[in-house]
Amino acid sequence: MLDAHLHSVETAATLPTPSIDAPRPTRQEAEAAVRTLIRWAGDRPAREGLLDTPARVVRAYEEWFGGYALDPEALLGRTFEPAGYDDLVLLRDIPVRSVCEHHMAAIHGVAHVAYLPGERVVGISKLARLVDAYARRLQIQERLTSEIADTLQRVLQPRGAAVVIKASHDCIASRGVDMQGVTMVTRRLLGQFEHEPYRRDILAALEL
Ligand SMILES: Nc1nc2c(ncn2[C@@H]2O[C@H](COP(=O)(O)OP(=O)(O)OP(=O)(O)O)[C@@H](O)[C@H]2O)c(=O)[nH]1
Ligand SMILES: [Zn+2]
């Protein structure tokens, strides 16, 4: 029994680093990784003020990366008849909270999401939920913008969809070039928004 125990410890210690395709780590493994990063920062995980930090960080990750557990297409599942309205629907200033995939630093800003109704419209809160479902993942702003616009266009099938994101990246503001106040603007115009007069219309509505 003792031999078997010693053997299993030895085996675990010599296991190779898990590949990126390995199953999701346990909570315990994730907390151990946070302790490693605390030591990398130069502090002691055993220090009293840091004892509960790994558990807190792992819980915070569940919020910051909650988008992986959501199905963005399903969020647009409930639709309504447009009741005779066929002009621009625009939800402005949706808060964007994301994390850049290069540095795992915060991205924060706003998204504007618009569409030109086709057969169906969607509850406006669902546009904000759609933004959040893609934002709460590791992202670059370009992909975030495209994923929101493409999903809206594919699932709701409006006559056009448009997404604009204006955001600041902490990886620029607090390290590297270390410049605050820099914002990145990305946009994706689909369907009728790609052509005049809708293109001019939506860009004016978004003050771009
Ligand atoms: N296109 C794009 N770039 C991003 C985004 N978020 C961060 N970046 C950039 O990703 C790049 C990564 O560049 P690297 O040279 O590999 O990393 P680095 O040495 O840390 O670069 P610096 O930030 O310039 O110090 C940086 O230029 C970041 O500014 C994003 O959403 N979109
Ligand atoms: Zn970054």
Task: Outline the structure in words.
The chain has 208 residues and is α+β, with helices and mostly antiparallel strands. It folds into two domains: 19-64, GTP cyclohydrolase I, N-terminal domain (GTP Cyclohydrolase I, Chain A, domain 1), CATH 1.10.286.10; 72-205, 2-Layer Sandwich (GTP Cyclohydrolase I, domain 2). It has eight helices and seven strands. Strands 5-2-3-6-7 form a five-stranded mixed sheet. The chain has a two-stranded antiparallel sheet with strand order 1-4. Helix 5 packs antiparallel against helix 6 (141-156). The model is unreliable at 1-14 (pLDDT under 50).
Sheet with most strands:
5 strands, mixed
Low-pLDDT stretches: 1-14
> What's the domain count?
2
CATH top level assignment of the largest domain: Alpha Beta
Bound ligands: guanosine-5'-triphosphate, zinc ion
Number of helices: 8
Q: Which percent range describes the beta-strand content?
A: 15-25%
Outline: elongated
Here the CATH topology of the largest domain equals GTP Cyclohydrolase I, domain 2
Averaged pLDDT: 92
In CATH terms, the superfamily of the largest domain is GTP cyclohydrolase I, C-terminal domain/NADPH-dependent 7-cyano-7-deazaguanine reductase, N-terminal domain
Radius of gyration: 22 Å
Give me the strand/helix succession: HHHHEEEEHEHEHEH
Order of strands, widest sheet: 5-2-3-6-7
Q: Roughly what percent helix?
A: 25-40%
Structural class: alpha+beta
Distance between the termini: 71 Å
